[in-house]
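Consider this:
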Amino acid sequence: MEKRFLSLADVVETLNISMAQGYALVRTGDLPAIQVGPKKVWRVEAAELESYIERMYAKSRERLKGSAAADG
């Protein structure tokens, strides 16, 4: 069974970014997350991570289209 929630450490490893960058994504709301437990640790729903990745792919495609149009 696949895990529903990922730790922030799992997220930053998946995205190959620093922990500081991971916290920044959460703080800005770019990557929705919740704090759970008495220690208030961050958890990201796996579906939210996938959604974030898809948004970043879409943003990259738009940038590439824009630069191709400017070059053409």
User: Anything to note?
Assistant: The mean pLDDT is 94. The chain has one domain: 5-71.
